[in-house]
Amino acid sequence: MTEKKGLFITFEGGDGCGKTTQLNLVAKYFREKGKVVLVTREPGSIGLGQKLRELILHYDEDIAPTAEAFLFLADRAQHVCKLIKPAIEQGKVVLCDRHTDSSVAYQGYGRGENIEQIKNFNNIATQGLIPDLTLVFDVSEDIAQKRLGKEKDRMESAGRNFHKRVREGYLEIAKQEPQRVRVIDANLPIEDVFEQVKKIINEKI
Ligand code: TYD
To answer: Which of 23, 56, 68, 155 has the fewest CB atoms found within 10 Å of its own CB?
Structure first.
C-alpha cells in the first residue's frame, strides 16, 4: 500500500457532465492554496496510456466488452504505478479525470460485465489504492446531449439506453459508498456547480 502523504480526488460522471471544467477549477483552487497539483486522466495520461486511448476510443471495428474492460484496466494499472502513486507519495494533490468508477459504471452497469469482477480487477489494477474523495457529476440526459455536440467518439455514440444505465450506475455506486463518493447536481451553471464542489472538498479535507 502507498504511504498516503498527498491527496487523491477522482472526477466521474457520464459523457458531457462537465467534470473536466470543474477539475480545472479545483486545480486552480488548490494551487492558490500553495499545493502542488497533478492533473491527469483516464484513459490515456502517459505514453502507453495514450496508445491505449487511441485504440479504445477510435478503433472502428467491434471490440468485445471484456476486451474493452481489460484495455481500460491496462491503462489504469500503468497509470497508477507510473504516475498516480509516485505523485501521492511526493505529497501532491492528484486530480484524476475518470478512474475505477468509470469501469464499474460503463463496463459494468453500461455494458453488462460482472460488477463484482470489475471491482476485483480494479483492485488489482490500482494495487488497492482508493481515492480519498470521488465527485460524481450528475446531469440530465438532455443537457449531456447538448454539451456533447455532434462529433462523438466510440463510447459517446453508444446510445441513449447505454448512457442511462451508466448514469444509474454512478448513482448506485454513490449509494453504496457514501463516505467516498459524493454526487453533485451538474445541471446548474458552472459557478453554482463549483460552489457545491468547494463545499464538499472543504468538508472532507
Ligand atoms: P473522454 O474523451 O476522456 O471523455 P470524457 O471527457 O467524458 O471523460 O473519453 C473517455 C471515454 O471512455 C468516456 O466515454 C468514458 C469511457 N471510459 C470507460 O468506459 N471506462 C473506463 O474505465 C474509463 C476510464 C473511461
So the answer is: 155
As given in the structure block, the three cell numbers for residue 30 are 488548490
List pLDDT tens digits, range 134-190. 999 999 988 888 888 778 888 888 888 999 999 999 999 999 999 999 999 999 999
Choosing from 17, 106, 109 the residue with most ligand 1 atoms within 8 A of its CB, the one to mutate for a pocket test is 106
Ligand 1, atom 14, residue with closest C-alpha:
155
Alpha carbon nearest to ligand 1 atom 12, residue: 155
Report how far residue 74's alpha carbon sits from residue 49's, in angstroms, rounded to the nearest whole number: 8
pTM over 0.70: yes
Q: Report how far apart, in Å, the C-alpha atoms of 138 and of each of 60, 71, 163 are.
A: 29, 25, 12
In the block, which residue shows the cell 481515492?
131
